[in-house]
Amino acid sequence: MTYDEFVEQRLVALSRYALMLTGDPHAAEDLVQETMVRAHAKWRLVAAAAAPDRYVKAMMANLFLDWRRGSWVRRVRLRPDVADSPAPNDHSEHSADRDLVWQVLATLPRQQRAALVLRYYEDLPDQEIADTLRCSVGAVRGYISKALATLRARAGDDLRIGGHR
Amino acid sequence: MIASDRTEEDLRASFARHETWTPDVDGLRRGIAKRQTVRRRRRLVAGTGAVALLTVIALVAVPLLLRVGRVSSLPLPPAVQPLPDRPLNFLLIGTDQFPDSPWPDVRSDTIILVHLPADHRRAYLISFERDLYVGIPGHGPNKLSASYAFGGAELLATVVSTIAGVSIDGTVVLTTAALRDITDTLGGVNVCLNENVTSFHTRVTYPAGCGHFDGTAAGDLARQRHGVTMGAFGRDRNVQRIIFGLFQQASQLNVFTDAGRVLALLRTDGVTMNLPGIDPIALAAVVHDLDPGDVVGLTAPTGDLIDTDAGSSVLLDTYIATGPFTALRNETLSDFAAENPDWVVTH
After folding, report:
1. Which of A109, B156, B337, B342 gives a 20 to 30 Å CA spacing to A92?
2. d(CA B291, CA B281)
3. 8 A C-beta contact, residue B53 and residue B85
């Protein structure tokens, strides 16, 4: 598969995945762009992988986790219109978001958020999540149970506003 | 239990609802193209010109374009061979020449086993003290470094392979001059020292704490054992710190994904590579994906010097008994590092 073919087929799915990881369209854009530039730079290696799509998604997840050290975050910081927080939460473009779950997601540590996205959005089995995040299956389960506990506590049944505008 | 089911449902629903926030694909494409142009422009500034980018240059022409200290950027060479899907072990050998010596004596001063576990997501650097008292095939008992003098990188690799109990996949030899040049090509290196080090050779004092070293300073520091606590063992730690610093520097400059720059660095005068069946570009790509936390340095915290007919040497048995070699063979080095913090080099 060529890089262009990959982009043609996968860019939309990758950008959705980036949005779920970052919670913010601006940050998602930066994450996708930076990932694709790096994937392009090592394209022969990516194309030779058993599952290029999974490979690129793993690159993206790790860039997301690594935001403090990665050069891509310096680009994010240089743009004055992007929020400077670890889990950007800029909703100024959208009408007030009543989705409590989404708001609580933004407060979670990155590993927990990434684990949730990989299980509940990408529907990956725990071993694959562990491979993607470079940790043990036990760690993955730890992240997920802590994250769900937080969600349950702060956006649980009785507090849920539900629906969206 | 019902509540937790609802939570998972709510989570999935929230993700699904927010798909409408997905950034526009065309905007993304433009952004990617723009970022690539910025990257190329940055490389042009550092490199020798637009020629490298616009033309496919036969590898034969590469040496003509390269100058030490200036690195040009070339398109990816054809067909990068992926690395073998198993643990990998390389020997990094630093040699030092005695400028005042009447003999062309080249000693291996630094011997580091670079280990990549099977998933290639970490790197362990294990220093071997050059004064280890070992048996050298065909030459009898001597210091480990003597094996390099007798039979070059190959004989040294054979001996290390016997000590560590793993096969060696390749060797890279670096002279002090090559270390200096590579450091300068990368714009210097940041090294954090845990004590002041005064050079026996240049009388310069490198202060404790973190500092930026140019090639000359890095090369000087790498040779110091007299002004360093625990002598040779302290030196091994500082050498590891320099290597770690170079890795960080190169990572930040995105060198490892740039095949042209990787090849140029490996062609620095004084670098001798023997990596049969290993594509250095594939190796560089693996290194690129390593975070600083994925690189772990291990050196013996102490050693007993004994007098042998080869001079002061270090007992091998203690080295083996307390060392990381069992962990190396069993792929349990991360446990070893956790359980033996005095072996771990702090960067």
Report:
1. A109
2. 18
3. no
Dist. CA A12–CA A108, nearest whole Å: 25
pLDDT less than 50: residues of chain B: 1-3, 48-77, 100-104
- Which B residues, 93 through 152, put their C-beta within 8 Å of a C-beta on chain A? 121
Task: Give the pLDDT confidence score for residue A112 in this predicted structure.
Answer: 93
Instruction: Identify the weakest region by mean pLDDT among A41-50, A99-108, B300-309.
Output: B300-309
Q: Which two tokens stand for residue B260?
A: 């042209």
Measured distance CA(B152)–CA(A160) in Å, rounded: 71
The verdict on ipTM greater than 0.90 is: no
Whole-angstrom distance, CA of residue A83 vs CA of residue A24: 10
The helix, strand and coil proportions of chain B, stated in percent and rounded to the nearest 5, come to 45, 20, 35
Dist. CA B22–CA B43, nearest whole Å:
32
Contacts of A20 (CB under 8 A, 6+ apart): A117, A121, B15, B18
- For the ranges A50-54, A151-155, B169-173, B282-286, the maximum mean pLDDT occurs at B169-173
CA of B270 vs chain A CAs: smallest distance (Å): 27
Nearest-by-Cβ selection for A15 from B13, B23, B254: B23
Q: What is the pLDDT of residues B262-310, one digit of tens each?
A: 988 998 888 889 999 899 988 998 898 888 888 999 988 766 566 666 6
CB-nearest partner of B257 from A38, A69, A116: A38
**pTM of the predicted structure, to 2 decimals:** 0.55
- Residue B6 forms contact with A (CB below 8 Å): yes
Output the CA–CA distances (angstroms, integers) from residue B103 to B97, B131, B321, in the order listed.
10, 20, 37
Is 90 exceeded by the pLDDT of residue A70? no
How far are the Cα atoms of A150, B233, B248, B272, B321 from residue B301, in angstroms, in the given order? 44, 7, 24, 30, 13
- Say what percent of chain A tops pLDDT 70: 75
Q: Does residue B302 belong to the interface with chain A, where contact is any CB pair within 8 Å?
A: no
Phi, psi of B195 (to 5 degrees): -160, 165
